[in-house]
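Help needed: design a sequence for this.
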C-alpha cells in the first residue's frame, strides 16, 4: 500500500491524549504502521550521561499510530489523502481541496 504520510508532512492528531495537537512527521515505520511526530506523544526517558550528552530525565517523542494522524491542508484543517496519476507519475492529493500534495 502506498504511503499516505511521509517524513516532513504537517499533521494533526485525531485521537488520543494529544488530540488536536499539530506537528511535523520526523520518522515513519510502515511495517508497524506508526510515525514519530515532533511534540506529540511525549514521554520521559532516563538517559545515561555520555561524553557528548548531559543525561538525566529527557522528554522523547514516542511513536503514534498512523490511523490517529491526519494530513493538514493549506487551510490548516485535517484532510484525507488520495492518489492520482499525473503525467505518468503517482501523486498524493488532498481529498478536501483536490490539491496535489507532492510538488
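Sure. Designed sequence:
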Amino acid at each position: 500500500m502506498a504511503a499516505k504520510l511521509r517524513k516532513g508532512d504537517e499533521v494533526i492528531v485525531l485521537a488520543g491524549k494529544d488530540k488536536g495537537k499539530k506537528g511535523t512527521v520526523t520518522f515513519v515505520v510502515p511495517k508497524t504502521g506508526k510515525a514519530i511526530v515532533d511534540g506529540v506523544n511525549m514521554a520521559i526517558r532516563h538517559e545515561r550521561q555520555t561524553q557528548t550528552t548531559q543525561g538525566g530525565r529527557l522528554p522523547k517523542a514516542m511513536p503514534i499510530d498512523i490511523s490517529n494522524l491526519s494530513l493538514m491542508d493549506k487551510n490548516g484543517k485535517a484532510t484525507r489523502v488520495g492518489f492520482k496519476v499525473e503525467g505518468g507519475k503517482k501523486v498524493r492529493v488532498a481529498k478536501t481541496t483536490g490539491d496535489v500534495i507532492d510538488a
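Residues 10-74 form a domain with the SH3 type barrels. fold (CATH 2.30.30.30).
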